[in-house]
Amino acid sequence: MSDSSPAPADPAAPASPAVLDVWCELQCPDCRTALDDVRVLRARYGDRLEVRLRHFPLERHKHAFAAAQAAEEATEQGQAWAYVEAVLGRVEELDRRGEPFLVEVARELGLDADEFDTALIDGRHILIVDADQAEGKAIGVTGTPTYVIAGELLDGGKSQEGLRERIEEIVDRLLAGPEA
User: Fold this and answer.
1) For 89-115, what is each residue's pLDDT tens digit?
2) Per-residue H/E/C for the chain
């Protein structure tokens, strides 16, 4: 999932060489903690770093799969990161209330809550969530949060300690180009 829709290519602007995949699930307290690092990275690098939320709902969290689908609907409505941050900020409420909470958050953000409700019923985003989860398993993701950048897998579920710094080292190297 990406925060913005693709803009027309500017031939004078170099393509972003740095892509950070964040394997996450929206009912995970560790992902809520990791969100602070993601905010710092997004602020520091702006458009030079594409941060993509990838879904990895864990079976032990009964609302995680629905939350991933809701995040995809938020992407469709242009509010991906705002929605993700709002849900992760209230993980305990998601635990208690489930899908009605996901629709309520959409309403609070001014999104089309009826469309969220319909999307959760008709399952229009299931294939995206399933594909993310399958890809995550294929590359060795076992828990959340997990970061993948430049082919390096960094497991934030074990510890967040030092991960942002390691990601910054990799991004700085990627942005410096091949001669770095």
Assistant:
1) 999 999 999 999 999 999 999 999 999
2) CCCCCCCCCCCCCCCCCEEEEEEECCCCHHHHHHHHHHHHHHHHHHHHEEEEEEECCCCCCCCHHHHHHHHHHHHHCCCHHHHHHHHHCCHHHHHHHCHHHHHHHHHHCCCCHHHHHHHHHHCCCHHHHHHHHHHHHHHCCCCCCEEEECCEEEECCCCCCCHHHHHHHHHHHHHHCCCC
